Amino acid sequence: MIAHTSGETAPASRRRQTAAQRAVLSVLDSSEHFRSAQQLYRQLRQHPTHQFGLTTVYRVLRTLVEDKIAEIQRAEDGELLYRIRTTNEHRHYLLCRQCGRAEAFTSTPIEDQTRQLSRTFDYTDVTHHVDLYGVCPRCRDT
Ligand SMILES: [Zn+2]
Ligand SMILES: [Zn+2]
Asked: Which residues take part in binding Zn(2+) (predicted)?
């Protein structure tokens, strides 16, 4: 009996974390739009069985990003937004500032200029973030 109880301690905590991960994933999966941790948290709380704290949501999101299951994008105000990763390729986004809808694009001039500047100034490991923000047709028409 004692052995049984103590044997359950570690798996139980793992199970809780897995349940939170599953819950966050199901909410992330429900939309392709980028959403903030706060928004995801609020959507999560609408399910009676998904009463996880905001700290847990942040922790799960961080793990999902580290595991490359989720991708992050910065909102116009710098807040981090999340969604299920759709591609591992380098992309830029035109993002709706109201609903988080994202149109991915690649830009040869931006990539070329990055390489050129890196060469000119002899920098290595150069990265860039070029994000565009606007209002999508659906948000504009409602
Ligand atoms: Zn929109
Ligand atoms: Zn780029």
From this structure: 96, 99, 136, 139
